[in-house]
Amino acid sequence: MKTKTLARTLVSVFTFLIASTIAAQSRQPNIVFIFADDLGYADTSVYGSEVIRTPHIDALAGEGIRFTQGYVSHPVCSPSRAGLLTGRYQQRHGWEFNPARRDDAAGMDINEQTIADALKAQGYATGMIGKWHLGHAEEHHPMSRGFDEYFGVLAGGSQFFETLPEGGEYALNGAPTKRTPYNGIYRDRELVQVDEYLTDVFTDEAITFIDHHADDPFFLYLSHTTPHTPLQATKQYLDRYGHIRNMATRVYAAMVSSLDDSVGRVVQKLKDIGQYENTIIAFLSDNGCAGYIDNACSNGELAGFKRYHQEGGIRIPFILSWPTELEGNRVLDTPVISLDLFGTFTAAAGQMVETEDTVNLLPYLKGEEEGNPHEFLYWRSGATMVIRDERWKLIKFKFSDFDDDAIDTTGRLTPPAGGWHADAPLGHKLVLYDLANDSGETTNLAEQHPDIIARLEAEYAQWNAQLPPASEAILPGLRSIQTEIDGSNVQLIF
């Protein structure tokens, strides 16, 4: 009798496991998008860091696909996010620059469909945790833009905690300050008090969201503020890098370590509920590392930093994993862009939502399509204009027309009366790089290849003609810097 009971029990368990496996394989994939903030191209060990250890991000790359030429559509935070969430170059809908608190009512065009809108229409539970940076007003709130749930900061960043924890140390921005409604933490639409380390809090919220929606296909947008300034870390993470004497480098490494732990905890939760194999995980940064943080971060051999349209500003860590559908442990050199996640995610959900700019990467990753997903990639920020094809990259910078006394110690320019202008009264500085042989953009080949410049300029002009003009006056709240490129002073507006 006992033998029969045991046999029936084993059969029941086996049947349940088979049914659960079939159900997991037949349901739409979950989608988890993890966005780092100002993480440099070479700030993880899998992308070449010899300072920062990132075992969980490395493992994700090992089980998925690591792109070496993954891009975002802008070298600063807010426009990059607008492009990602809409699958369209953000210039198409007027979000070309960081908001910079120029208008508290401003926000990304409410007529734009977001990836959350598109996935919600396909039956997904949608949740966002972390940094929004696309408008504070009610109509711009994440829950008005396709997300069922929200927990995070609506502004471009916040203190990582409000009170100094025991053993906490700071490299920049000093001790914590009281959060305001502008940079405070919101649960849905209500301001809440949070004093624990923000990276850990966001991760806790992500795990709770996954738990609550374990039985549903879900889309989770986990948008960390790490490792954006202020550079702040707890003793737990600082102790991992006690051997680093430079405090900025030490705190920055500690922050990236907390980000890595977040990735590990999310992955482990997906495994615990039996959903890891059927979950698409994307890991990216919103732009390159910020060169103004005491050289604490690294873009490796890439030139430039956040705010620059050189590779260090727009080429970022880009990892994609989906164990049931995509062969892992691959490194791909194919140029892709964050805009492609819109098409890829919606296609994986069952029905691709097309835009002018997104490409469904799945056929390329499965070997069903050959070649590059994009013939050209484009960037524009005011008078800065960029285009690259498979090999060549052309940048047109605006010659700076400001005196040295208009520049502060950070290289930032004082706005003139009436605001910046996106035109170039002194003309453009042309730089042409052969990325196939010079990924560090060390040698300007513009004078040697006028034919290539003419071809790329003509192609760029066709693309730019589709967009609203960038030549109107830009409001004074926007930021601008002067920098030297190939021996010339140029101005960048962002």
* Alpha-carbon Rg, integer: 23 Å
Number of domain modules: 2
Q: Helical stretch count?
A: 11
How far apart, in Å, are the first and last alpha carbons? 77 Å
Q: How many strand segments?
A: 22
Quote the CATH topology of the largest domain.
Alkaline Phosphatase, subunit A
Major sheet characteristics: 10 strands, mixed
Q: Indicate the overall shape.
A: globular
What structural class do the secondary elements suggest? alpha/beta
What's the CATH architecture of the largest domain? 3-Layer(aba) Sandwich
The helix fraction, in percent, is 25-40%
CATH class of the largest domain: Alpha Beta
> Quick one: CATH superfamily of the largest domain?
Alkaline Phosphatase, subunit A
Could you list some keywords that capture this structure?
494 residues; globular; alpha/beta; single chain; Alkaline Phosphatase, subunit A; Arylsulfatase, C-terminal domain; 26% helix
Kindly describe this structure:
By secondary structure, this protein is α/β, with parallel strands linked by helices. Strands 8-7-5-4-9-1-11-12-2-13 form a 10-stranded mixed beta sheet, sandwiched between helices. Strands 15, 16, 17, 19, 21 and 22 form a 6-stranded antiparallel beta sheet that branches. It has 2 domains: 28-365, Alkaline Phosphatase, subunit A (3-Layer(aba) Sandwich); 377-493, Arylsulfatase, C-terminal domain (2-Layer Sandwich). Residues 9-24 have low confidence and may be disordered. Strand 16 (384-388) and strand 17 form a beta hairpin. The protein has helices at 2-26, 55-63, 77-86, 115-120, 198-212, 235-238, 247-272, 311-314, 340-349, 362-365, 450-464, and strands spanning 30-36, 65-67, 70-71, 125-131, 149-153, 169-170, 185-187, 190-192, 218-223, 232-233, 279-285, 318-321, 330-332, 336-337, 377-381, 384-388, 392-399, 420-421, 428-434, 473-474, 480-485, 488-493. Helix 2 packs across helix 7 (247-272) and helix 5 (198-212) packs parallel to helix 7 (247-272). The chain contains 11 helices and 22 strands. Helix content is 26%, strand content 20%.
